[in-house]
Amino acid sequence: MRYEAPNSLDQAVALLSKESGDARVLAGGTDLLVQMRTDLVDPVLVVDIKGIAETRQIKEEGGGFRIGAAVTGAELKEHPKLKAVWPGIVEAANLIGSTQIQGRATMGGNLCNGSPAADSVPALIAAGAKATVVGSKGRRDVPVEDIMIGPRKLSLSKGEIVASFLLPPKPARTGEAYLRFIPRTEMDIAVVGCGVCLTLDAKGTCTAARVSLGAVAPRPLLVAPAAAALVGTTLNDAAMQKLDAAARAACQPIDDKRGTKDYRIKVAGVLVRRAAQIALERARKG
Amino acid sequence: MAKHHVTATVNGDAVEFLCETQETLLDCLRDQLGLTGTKEGCSTGDCGACSVTVDGRLVCSCLMLGVEAQGRSIGTIEGVAKGDELHPLQRKFLEHAALQCGICTPGFLVAAKALLEKEPNPSETEVRYWLAGNLCRCTGYDKIVRAVLDAASEMRGA
Fold this sequence. Notes:
Chain A has 286 residues and is an alpha+beta fold. Chain A has helices at residues 9-18, 32-37, 73-78, 82-85, 87-94, 99-102, 107-112, 120-126, 224-230, 237-250, 261-285, and strands at residues 2-4, 23-26, 45-48, 58-61, 64-68, 130-135, 138-143, 148-150, 153-154, 161-167, 174-181, 192-200, 206-214, 221-222. In chain B, helix 2 (88-95) crosses helix 5.
């Protein structure tokens, strides 16, 4: 196995593009090293992207934020402004693993690891984040919901790297939240994860919403009917019931040791209402 | 393929070692540098026995390649005591009997030290969450948490 640590995206893309064997991008390594250790993957080339400036920075850009794909959870939490603007995203990223894992784990890795239960992904999807993908043909901005296409499967072409995420400017009276359900208080993988982002008008009516669910389908979902259940309402009980039903209708979960299909579907409905309530409270404050 | 030549700082001392690509920082600390205080538990980032700091950040050394340590400043359990003088956390672990078999202890001490450097006055809840990635299969966690809180109190001069 070769290890390369280029300091430019062009070099990283060139290395990944010309390798005919299994080549892997190394960000925090908290998934990749475990998979190598347990022989799930056996790459011939590992390209460490942490030496590339764009992957390691959090910058304000176009009224929003650009977050490097290799920024760690601990760094997201410590950023002076990010958590105040996008608390749901930071909280979602901070749910992943222990303090030690937070010191290494990244949102780029969380997305590109390709797990349907990745905690930061529904939060990014709800926020309308784009992934900036860099390859031999240049850069393109891709909605986060279009990156993962199934378990361990991404829409990226050979040699392409997620370099950073672009969070849009947050409109006034917009709030977002991410909640996940696990059977204990921490250190587990989501049974269901749910991100909600919504905007209110001056009278408190919802004018825009995005709802995303994780761990209930082969990939994290953007659930348009759930968002539609909120738009035009004040999130009254009737709207919350419609939201619950729309979220449940979108689920196509598996049975596994963390929960049965029926259980996951029921929890998705409960969690989406709770996340919407937190997003609503946050929207009223800002 | 040629081994990687890595230069880094460990507990303030300049070190260099040769490693294969797939060797973890944990492997390098123990096998190349002879620093066997850092323990191998699960090797998958679940148990925290291999906790070290990298540029001040708490990490699992089993989840980092040795070659990634190039130019970094590593802190291990061997750097916690000052010569023969135990760190307050080490004394309090002894006083509170916060260890039995001891395999998890270096990881707990390194993790707790990182917490107190960031937050000198943590609540019990903060201590428990911070140390949630360190597993102990002997004592339960109560004595460990008390030892950390007591050490924090002493270090603040309270």
